[in-house]
Amino acid sequence: MLTCKFCGKRASTILTDTFYPVCKECFMEHFEKKVIRTIREYKMFDYNDRIAVAYSGGKDSTVLLHLLHKIEENFPKSELFVITIDEGIKGYRDDALKVARENVKELGLEHHIFSFKELYGATLDEIVEISKGRKNSLKPCSYCGILRRYAINVAARELGATKVATGHNLDDEAQSFLINLLRKDIRRIGHLYPFKDVKSELFVKRVKPLRKVSERDIVLYAYFKDLKFHEVTCPYASYSVRNFVRKFINEVSQVIPNVRQNLLKSLDYFSRKVYEEESDKEIKLCKVCKEPTSGEICKRCEVLIDLGLIDKNKLESNDEG
Ligand code: SF4
Ligand code: ZN
Ligand code: ZN
Prior knowledge:
Helix content: 40-55%
CATH superfamily of the largest domain: HUPs
Largest sheet: 5 strands, parallel
Shape: globular
Strand content: 5-15%
Distance between the termini: 75 Å
Bound molecules: iron/sulfur cluster, zinc ion
CATH architecture of the largest domain: 3-Layer(aba) Sandwich
């Protein structure tokens, strides 16, 4: 019988970083301590923050929400509330929303739900249909990411959040870094810098408390804690570049077991260099929506104009005014 490295009880699993056998209780303690250390290391929160958790109902954000709720009990001056974006993905998001509502209710938190349909006039499913055959059409995940990021920032700001916490984990961070390298998208590597400051007061600072814990450990923690989360994969996930990169990293991890941690360390090193080089870049206001952007028109408005969901004339009338 394999015994726990820390308490001698029967081991239930192994730790991903050290490969020590551990029991369920020691695994959970190790997991929670690791997240708390990450929060401290990157100075993610202030004692009096009003934190918006970007919550989808999936495993990562469910673990994040429950863990922040537990940690936050020691900080009476801070507040936690929840933002959920309903992208409008038939047969997927509806079930996730149900789980999300139940978890938020159980914790007694304020819950704000916004939909693409009410914000942009179309669901993601409709956007994917509209984009078919268009010259500049993007992958579903690109539309989803751009429009969701914008929606979360505006919602968080208007609801008085001082931070937005997202459920990105170690695997997500390693994948994002590699995707940006493969695309030679150097600027976006700078966006991943974990100490990044907001360059405009219209941006709410984003933090990723789970960035050092692996997807595998998150699933295990959720099962050990008996958390309810939405387990179905999004129907658009298989079209994404991320899906290929995920498989690639999983394969490489057979020969380089610490490949995710190595990628994260490389990401922290290189993203800082890029961030420092880019830090003097001016932030303007988008000509259409007046939200902060580095170009003339923000990415959200660019895609909405392209899809015919924003009237091009609005751009000209804003110019005149
Ligand atoms: Fe959006 Fe892609 Fe995630 Fe589906 S997999 S929710 S389309 S980002
Ligand atoms: Zn133990
Ligand atoms: Zn805009």
